[in-house]
Amino acid sequence: MQNPPHAASRADGPAGSQGAGTSISARAMGALRPDAAAYLEGLNPEQRRAVETTEGPVLVLAGAGTGKTRVLTTRIAHLIATNRARPYDILAVTFTNKAAREMKHRIGALIGPAGEGMPWLGTFHAIGTKILRRHAELVGLKSDFTILGTDDQLRLMKQVILDQNVDEKRWPARALSHAIDGWKNRGLGPEQVPAGEAQAFAFGKGAALYTAYQARLATLNAVDFGDLLLLCLKLWRENPDILQTYQSRFRYILVDEYQDTNVAQYLWLRLLAQGHRNVACVGDDDQSIYGWRGAEVDNILRFEHDFPGAVVVRLERNYRSTGHILAAASGLIARNEGRLGKTLRTDDEPGERVTVTGAWDSEEEARQIAEAIERLQGKKHPLSEIAVLVRISAQMREIEDRFVQLGLPYRVIGGPRFYERAEIRDALAYLRVTANPADDLAFERIVNTPKRGLGDATLQQLHAYARAERVPLLLAARRLCETDELKPRVRSTLRALTESFSRWARSVETQPHSEVAQTILEESGYTEMWQKDRSADAAGRLENLKEFVRSMEEFPDLAGFLEHVSLVMEASEAEGAERVSLMTLHAAKGLEFDTVFLPGWEDGLFPNQRALDESGRAGLEEERRLAHVGLTRARKRAKLSFAVNRRIHGLWSSTIPSRFIDELPEASVDVVEAPAHFSAGASRFGRNPAPFGSSYGTPGWQRAQAAISGRGFGASAGGGRSGGPSGGPRQIEGELVAKSTGSPSAFQGGQRVFHTKFGPGTVAGVDGNKLTVDFDKAGRKMVLDSFLQPG
DNA sequence: TTTCCCTCGTTTTTT
DNA sequence: ACGAGGGAAA
Question: Does A31 belong to an annotated binding site?
Fold first, then answer.
């Protein structure tokens, strides 16, 4: 394999017309290729260069919508098709399981089943796990180690903090967890933490806590996510021979989303890449939005320095967005200083300009968005091609409320993950103890779930015994039941539990694991617990449990299932329905939609004040990249908006439009103004609307009304259901201006009424001029009678 | 052991 | 405003 048949001369493929310096034979050879390689067709010259520069380090700077995934998958197909590598010679790492799955899928489509068997295509963590299982004993583990999720991690930290006599009030487990995660992200083991930082935590106990935490993990035969990479580094550093086998095994290395790598991942890659040095990293420094969780933009900025002789390919031709959208995004991101610099361009038409709309408050903003969506819907715009991207999840509530009122179908992307739901984690804990009786953390989670009278006191006894005898909790429980240490009632409950676990463990040997799971959930009383629960979401939880058991069937055995779960914490998404998507900007990375709404462009919210406070200019630049990501999600329409008043932590505060709005290139932006114009004089977008400075407060609703009707401020562009006729008295949420006047109402219970916002309904109760109305669509609301008409 | 109340925090999220 | 989690009372 030293001389592959089609050894590429240099980067210039046949498409590169810079023939100078390319040998005749090479060109002749290239001329053959288009036939031989259908998969290369349709690639532009830069993409092709990124695919065909197979030898040596390559950095592909792939702007948004420039065909990044295509390059990555084609490159793999190319390596295999030209016999440069077999599927198992290639290491391809991604960040998310979703990305890994998609890549597998697309490679399969390109080269057929040959791509199915890429054993080393996966997330950093999945590959790290695979490697660690093979050499577990060399890093002090057994090969069936468990991978702890965040909740287990936290519980462990709490124990460690307690053990070390640190005040848990002052140094909460979360903070320790944060610190340790940070160290692990930077590739630092307990001994390598800089003394200063270790000192800073808990009066110098930082290092001791870290060490103790690792020791606890080791005794539990468990690792956390950080360890999956960190322990690989340790393994390789201490065993050069093993490192070398991996270095020579991976002839070609590919990395997706390189801008998101942290230091540990970078070190991990660098060690592996030192073998063949054929490492291709694909990323976009302008889409680095995970700095807060350890991603180092520096990794991508430093690539040429770290891999001397690297070829850098820029993909700047955008196939996604229209001209104005691209211009807006480019103009914005150009304000960042720490970037390698790319200029996206498109051959597409200029299209619609990016719109900017102001609203009086966040509720009106939500109303405007919903109306705009309904208008689009009226023009046959598919809802699945519309997305609303928010900066923080708290923004979603009002928008959802509005959608619910209108009966507009939507889905929230990136909500609580399936495997993170309490009922699923509980069920998992039962399975974990069944599969591995030494899994103390899982045991602790469910000893008293459902409630069976085994509380703290009992647990303390178990712990004491377990620690003294150096046995797992379950075994400790079993032994203590044989003594008179426990109160009779506790003893019998505990004995029943331990016996159940023994029984379940036995049945795993003989029965299908999903059936065992079903049995466990029933016999333990867990299902019953939710059946008795009267809260609203109990039914959903039971549904989830069913789905959980069903999903187990896809795996060959219990161990396989548990491994999958610990690495793949994502929701099973019901695809396909015709719905608007609602998500955070972070969750939107990698997705695209025809129309994208971007609400909440207000200073303090976006750019987020906290990001600014904590990371200064770097924070601002990351926020700006986030804005850039948001804009570049749109294919045809991007609609920005801001509200001048927003409720923050329950308090109404006035806000000013985001500085990012003023950074957009004017030529690509349309300001959608209310009929009577929204601000005279001030800057282009009505920055700092004079009459309501920061002094605006809750009692000011009178002023608010005056301002709105007087200036037409933020009146919805399309009229429609939210506002009265323009110029007339504006309606604000009935609740907000609700002031009981005491004057008797013209309405009576049972009467049919109509409300401009909520539609038709029936009066359920009367209190002065405040009415309780059961609306046909919106449910029960308190409204003022002045907003109602007899129906 | 359980239940109720009070305090605290509240960007973004993967594995 | 609001929910989660911890501590004190039943």
Answer: no
Q: What token pair was written down for A31?
A: 């001329």
Q: Find out whether A423 and A530 touch, Cβ atoms under 8 Å.
A: yes
Residues in A 642-671 whose C-beta is less than 7 A from nucleic strand C are: 647, 649-650
Nearest 5 degrees, angle CA A627-CA A632-CA A633?
100
| Alpha-carbon span A715 to A133, nearest angstrom | 62
A108: confidence class by pLDDT, cuts 50, 70, 90: confident
Q: What is the DSSP letter of A64?
A: T
Q: Is the CB of A126 under 7 A from strand B?
A: yes
Count of CA atoms in the C-beta half-sphere (13 A) of A721: 18
A525 CA, C7 C1': Å apart? 29
CA of A124, C1' of B14: distance in angstroms: 11
Number of C-beta neighbours around residue A274 at 10 A: 12
**How far is A296 from A292, CA to CA, in rounded Å?**
9
A358 marked ligand binding residue: no
Can you give the pTM of this predicted structure?
A: 0.77
Check residue A129 and give left, alpha or beta (phi > 0: left; psi -120 to 50: alpha): alpha
Residue A735, CA distances (Å) to A367, A651, A729 in order:
16, 16, 16
Q: Using the structure block, give the residue that is written with the tokens 């109306």.
A: A371
Residues of A annotated catalytic, as ranges: 68-69, 256-257, 287, 633
pLDDT score of A252: 96
- Phi and psi at A685, nearest 5°, equal -105, 25
- A555-583 per-position pLDDT tens digit: 888 988 888 888 876 655 556 678 999 99
